[in-house]
Amino acid sequence: MGDVFLNKADMDVHPPRLHTDYKSTILRAPTKPLLLLKPSLSEYTGPVFGDMNIGEFDHDLTINGRKNGEPIGERMVVHGKVTDQNGKPIPHTLIEVWQANAAGRYVHKVDQHDAPLDPNFLGAGRCLTDAEGNYKFYTVKPGAYPWGNHYNAWRPNHIHFSLFGGGITSRLVTQMYFPGDPLLKHDPIYLGVPPKGRDLLVGHFDLGLTEPSFALGYRFDIVLRGHSATPFENL
Amino acid sequence: MKQTPSQTVGPYFAYGLTPQQYNYDFPSHVDGNMVDPLTTPNTITIIGQVLDGEGKPIDDAMIEVWQNDGEKALFGRYGTGTDPNNRFIFNTIKPKSVNGQAPYVTFVVFMRGQLIHSFTRMYFSDETSLNKTDETLNSIPEHRRNTLIAKQNGNQYQFDIHMQGDLETVFFDI
Ligand SMILES: [Fe+2]
Fold first, then answer.
1. pLDDT at position A232, please?
2. Using a CB-CB distance cutoff of 8 angstroms, which residues of chain A are in contact with residue B138?
3. Min CA distance, B53 vs chain A (Å)?
4. I want to staple B3 with a disulfide (CB 3.0 to 4.6 A). Which of A10, A217, B89, B122 is the partner?
5. Are A176 and A78 in contact (CB under 8 A)?
6. Residue A174 dihedral angles phi and psi, to the nearest 5°
7. Is residue A168 part of a domain?
8. What share of chain B is helix, strand, coil (3-state, %, to 5)?
9. What does the pLDDT look like over A159-188, one tens digit per residue?
10. A111 backbone φψ class: left, alpha, beta (φ>0; ψ -120 to 50)
11. DSSP assignment letter at B137
12. At residue A209, what are phi and psi to the nearest 5 degrees?
């Protein structure tokens, strides 16, 4: 193997495993200390999707779920750059997104929230970053939705993101929130992140990215853990 | 630069991350078939449940499996919400030993109730001699070592993941 390095997870910005305000952590968070692992080949590498077939509209959630018209909602476009901690762009890496529709309802069969489904909106998408690590999604702004964590609990508007970054240790699942959302200060999932990490989860409104007469522009840059410098291109 | 913080995968990942397994109208790019079991000799099947602190099977976990022995690199993903017993099911091949270590596969565990995913490894019960000399296994207190060793039955391996309790799986800080 070539130059191998793994940065550690930044535990001063990542949330802890047990966060009792978020009740389902109580029976699901590991209770014993994690064991320090001397990594081997499998942990120095990870799946690489650089030449994966991405459908023509996979990155456009305003199109990829249409049945008989356009989805309802405030159209938006999310731009961002994926880099490692040194600011080095991560090209051709897979990003997957999923979200509620404009009314705050997920297509998922388990979601019983009494808000309408949108026949023209699935809420799932994916794309690869380009050679400079940039990505772009079109969608409609997701609605807030209630959940059972505590009395009158509502999740702030958010889009779920999943990234690989070439190493299994750079794997990241996160959520992008919206600036100025009054629900953020009541949300135990967002507040599970230490204060210095919270702003990193909020997308920025950007008039320069806003497409005239079409869609509001947001920027959400993503920084992944460093991983092996010599990823295996086997997938 | 600081890393972007992790957030939970939540309960509603299936139509985005494992859509075909859950019968959503969106193609999956990865599933539990890390190899094609019909055309791959020596296919093994890894089966298990993810259990919470009360010993109840978790029906909204997502498991990813990654293995790389330098010859074959394989990746799989499976949600525990479709099997009647909430099991994950992976078809793969057994990785080879790397540098004399016992062969293993890397597991990444995501679920509602985890703000950040957990890493573990699965070893093979029929690799008795390599397991005995393996540096990582030997670094684990003996009474917890078995939580990482899948039980072989023919070409099936049973590997349950206990989030908590007496049988709590060893999770790693990588
Ligand atoms: Fe959500």
1. 46
2. none
3. 5
4. A10
5. yes
6. -145, -170
7. yes
8. 10, 35, 55
9. 999 999 989 999 999 999 999 999 999 999
10. beta
11. H
12. -90, -10
A130 belongs to a structural domain: yes
Contacts of B173 in chain A (CB under 8 A): 34-37
Contact A28 B52 (CB under 8 A): yes
Q: For the whole model, what pTM was predicted?
A: 0.96
Which residue(s) pair with B150 in the sheet?
B124
> For B118-162, what is each residue's pLDDT tens digit?
999 999 999 999 999 999 999 999 999 999 999 999 999 999 999
Q: What pLDDT shows up at residue A50?
A: 83
What is the number of domains present in chain A?
1
Q: Does domain B11-162 have CATH number 2.60.130.10?
A: yes
For residue A116, tell me if it sits in a domain: yes
Residues with Cβ within 8 Å of B157's Cβ and at least 6 positions away in sequence, in order, are: B44, B45, B46, B47, B122, B124, B125, B150, B151
Specify the amino acid at residue A134.
Answer: N
What residues of A are in contact with residue B70 (Cβ under 8 Å)? 41
Q: Tell me which residue has tokens 């600081």.
A: B2
Measure B9 CA to nearest chain A CA, in Å: 6
Pairing, β B44-51 against β B87-92: antiparallel
How far is the centre of ligand 1, averaged over its atoms, from the C-alpha of A92 (Å)?
26
Radius of gyration in angstroms for the set of CA atoms belonging to chain B, rounded to a whole number: 16
Domain coverage including residue A131: 3-17+59-223
User: Is pLDDT of B50 > 80?
Assistant: yes
Determine contact: A93 vs chain B, CB below 8 A: no
Kindly list the domain boundaries of chain B, sorted by start residue.
Answer: 11-162
pLDDT, one tens digit per residue, over A86-128 is: 999 999 999 999 999 999 999 988 888 999 999 999 999 999 9
